[in-house]
UniProtKB/TrEMBL annotation:
Pyridoxal 5'-phosphate binds at A76, S77, W102, T152, D172, Q195, N237, T238. It comes from the Bacteria. Keywords: Amino-acid biosynthesis, Aminotransferase, Cytoplasm, Pyridoxal phosphate, Pyridoxine biosynthesis, Serine biosynthesis, Transferase. This is Phosphoserine aminotransferase. L-glutamate binds at R42. The gene is serC. The lineage of its organism: Bacteria, Pseudomonadati, Pseudomonadota, Alphaproteobacteria, Hyphomicrobiales. Residues 4-348 form the Aminotransferase class V domain.
Amino acid sequence: MARIYNFSPGPSVLPAPVLEKAREDLRGWRSTGITVMEMSHRGKDFIGIAEKATADLRELLEIPQNYKVLFLAGGASAQFAAVPLNLLRGKTKVSYVSTGYWSEKAIAEARLFGEVQVSASGKESNFTTIPPRPQWNVDPDAAYLHYTANETIGGVEFQAAPEADGLPLVADMSSNILSRPVEVGRFGLIYASAQKNIGLPGLAVVIVREDLIGQALPGTPSTFDYRRQAAEGSMVNTPPTYSWYVAGLMVEWLKEQGGLKAIEARNIRKAEKLYAAIDALPFYSNPVDPAVRSRMNVPFHLADAALETPFLAEAKEAGLAYLEGHRSVGGLRASIYNAMPEEGVDALISFMREFERKRG
Ligand code: PMP
């Protein structure tokens, strides 16, 4: 297959060695005579795959012992509901910071179960910046403080975990998990859908401090109950086994790349050169406050919006695909997750310069 550079926001590009390993394993898993796709989730072969993926993730993210790691169906959207269901723990209020589209989705879902206090919102700046931490209004009676670590559509990313004033800090890391080191011990809970930096869709990884589970709201469906899922090895129902297996391959690949510090250095280089190319020419623009620009998702506009269609068509011709912005905002967006090689970013930058020379 002639590979193109895939700038899709998710499902997104996978590392070539991960695809190669998956292809090899499709010939048959060891001597079982079947493939991973066909395995019982309760058989010893899949349990081995699941346990190794979990152990490798724990090692890579340096997850402390007092945290459970769950692999759950339903993506991050299911977690928008599972988080309040499990973490309200008898309280009525929850605090959320709104930095864009995905925070708003999380807030809307939390409102089904509790009273949501919006502690801070970037709406006034059209979500191009994050209100400074001292301006946040965090209710001390809230059950937790939730934020979206990286806004996949708006391209706004927290460069550090915010102070939570003693509340359990909860983060949606769907689009930046494993892109940099994080101090898991500062969080009550981290969740992420897998289809960006952890592989395939349908799966969410949940990392939750043990003392926060076990008090789910009465009526919580059993598949959403962290205590039950933790007790049953994320197998209250059949988990997305193939996505879990690919998550294991992604983590192995990251370890081979030198771990999170090494991938972070590469991600910084990729993002800095792409933003520099955008800022260098008035033909292109990115509206986000440079202090909070995302290293993973880079939205940009052309000064002449009418040129977006030819830009996309010619980029595709040049092997640079899926650069359209989200349908809610339009424009263009390059998603440059861990698996996007630096050469892909270089090729995009060259194309952008060339397109500007021809059309600018
Ligand atoms: N949160 C963020 C930050 C996302 O980018 C996405 C998906 N793009 C989601 C949540 C929802 O994930 P899913 O569609 O897997 O439920």
